[in-house]
Amino acid sequence: MPKFTSLPTNLIIDMPGYxxxxxxxxxxxxIGGAAVSSCKTKKEAExxxxxTTTPNGTTTxxxxxxxxxxxxxxxxxxxxxxxxxxxxxxxxxxxxxxxYYEIPDSLLGREMEVITRFLKTPANIKVFxxxxxxxxxxxxxxxxxxxxKQIFIKVPSYTIRADSTxxxxxxxxxxxxxxxxxxxxxxxxxxxTTGVVIDVTDFYNGDVAAIGITDEIKKAYKxxxxxxxxxxxxxxxxxxxxxxxxxxxxxxxxxxxxxxSNAAITFEFxxxxxxxxxxxxxxxxxxxxxxxxGQTQTDYGTDAQKAQVTSYIHRWKLEPKDEAAYARGELVxxxxxxxxxxxxxxxxxxxxxLIAGINDWNAAFEAAGFKNAIVGKEAPTPKEDPEFSTEDAxxxxxxxxxxxxxxxxxxxxxxxxxxxxxxxHVGWYHNVMNLLRDWYFVQTSAANGDARHAKxxxxxxxxxxxxxxxxxIGHTLGLxxxxxxxxxxxxxxxxxxxFTDKHxxxxxxxxxxxFNYIAQPGDGVTHFYPQIGEYDKWAIKWGYTWFPGKKTxxxxxxxxxEWVKEKAGNPLYYYGRQGTMIDPRLQSEDLGDNAMKAxxxxxxxxxxxxxxxxxxxxxxxxDYSDLQELYLEVLTQFYRYMGHVVxxxxxxxxxxxxxxxxxxxxxxISKDKQHDAIAFFNTQLFTTPSWLINSPELSKFDNGVMxxxxxxxxxxxxxxxxxxxxxxxxxxxxxKNGTKAYTVADLFNDLRGGIFTGGKPDxxxxxxxxxYIEDLKSLLTDDFKGIPGISSSxxxxxxxxxxxxxxxxxxxxxxxxxxLIDSRLPKGGDPITAAHYADLDAxxxxxxxxxxxxxxxxxxxxxxxxxxxxxxxxxEPGNGSRP
Length: 883
Known about the structure:
By secondary structure, the chain is an alpha+beta fold. Among the domains are: about 10-65, no CATH class; about 75-275, no CATH class. InterPro entries: DUF5117 (IPR033413), DUF5118 (IPR033428), EcxA_zinc-bd (IPR032534), MetalloPept_cat_dom_sf (IPR024079), Zn_MMP-like_bac (IPR034032).
């Protein structure tokens, strides 16, 4: 809607024929097709009714207020003399129902990190991830800048940069214009004219995405905007380096998670505006051989003959109090300690364990030369510190959510200029305890009598909480998951009490190396937990060691590179990234250096646990819900072991290196190991795992779906083995390594030997044989087109290796395999067996002759890797994790 403020309000324009026309009519006509009624009354003079005809002929009508320019007033006219001032970053004032900021000239143009968090949310809000009080809604950087008689909030971008001394600096600035989030009229100058006063009431009350709900929530609940009559600013408080604004906003909604009769959803928010350091911290360049969260920028200011991508790690700013002592190799306290406060809403009995998990990281910081670098504390009471707030951006907090979500996560907020971590709000969901109970029972109770309970003691649960606390705190220190860590320990070492007492289950607590499922009864193992290990200490040393002097990040990296090369080849210090399906070492929930051997030990323990679940979890007067939950957890754990093994087929080792390091970055898994993987499936999965079908216990909860559950495991694993990107890598291996490679022909031969064994097939084997034929059929008919918007090189990096199915060798091999199976199908037998083989024959003929249908059959199993049972999806909110 145009503003009609460019001409004096009393102007009357003379037109030809001496026709005097009101200026609004003229201006509206000039903008095309608008007719405006003339002003008749005082009330009407304050508003405009505008009718506009759109190009398609639709007419819309709107009533708008005239924009009254009041000009810049005296300070006392805007802020009455006795108004209470809240001094801080900006002095803030409340005059009746309006809030004002007094912005000093010295802070104009300064960058400020702005974090908006939910304070309170309605029940049942679930949009992709749950939204609870304390969780982050949005994060931005703001700059307050003045132009003429207005103040603007600008949102800078840090995706491209160049040093201010570089020839490219001006060009980069011209191509990186800051977006404008909001504008404010200057209401007054402050008393000594060193700053300006603006009214921020409408801004904080308004429907501004940066300080309100996400687009996902708006779409999910059909939200049309803020209802100002049901919204207000609660408080705005100013502190030395930050401002905290608490607001309540009611949104008009077509749907509601609680009560549609209100036609609305209400949230409470806290928006923290934190001044970024005037002198940015010296950044540390990242290295993909050492795991840290980080940020990337395209740097046009380097001497490289191309646009250089520069990556900085995320880390807290730690500097020694005594630089001379630090230089002598003594442990020194940092100038500023990392302090985590525990949410007052946390049940008191868990607070000591959460604090212990935080303090455990001091052992790692000692490797970087610091003592007492990090500490966990209980949040102060209102009496001890009335200004303390868990939403205050100055404080780092572990937030406790009353939620049935089985999760915890450890995000952090960092300076986008340098990667300096500024604060963190760890999210801790109450029901993570149920997840820990299930895992600890299913993974250790065969060899661990203390885990054989439906409910653990407070000490047992507290120790599990301590482990998860340490893991999540690791994320807040900048450490991502290290999925390659657990591969460092030989499988049989995890059966040693001496070894596990010293090392736990993996060299890094940042791996998803849960509890020791390998230890067998009689081994004497009593330490089943992960712990902060050798890799964690090494990573903290690499990321947090302080370098004196004025060396550049590039010069620091020269020293750090030498450290990395010293550790290269030692599996204790190996970092394996999360998210790729290409390397069998980089997996979730696995232990040891051989998935087949580890899985066999794990299954042996599951066979001991399953028939004892009812006895070990007996609860007088309770129903069988715990029995059902843990029984299905056994099935899920069994499926995990299958997943650990399948990655060996068509797998490659990934060892990132630089030019000055010898050896390959990628090399294929050995032929023998891939053969062993299929042999494992033939023994443990494709031979019906009848031990999973314990009729006495199943009869307490299963209502006829167990056959389908077992089928789901078998067919999902088979589907994964025959995944086209996996077969593509196998052909690549054969082309490069000839007879040393495990080929697709070898794979089909080994699968056929396990799936089409002699004797009468039971219901599970019949399901499996049909699934194999349908998977082969899919390879003949389905194309693998990758993922739109993601390049082939990116797909390959994550194991989604591209392949042209039409031109590949897969289809000729599949046709031969189908014909071979068909030629060997038995004839006759009992009615179900005869029908089964006749059906397989029809399916094969249909696959080989798709234009000549033989029988109507169910749709292809397709290429989706799905499973009809609870699985650990490892979904990560923010940059944290499922614990």
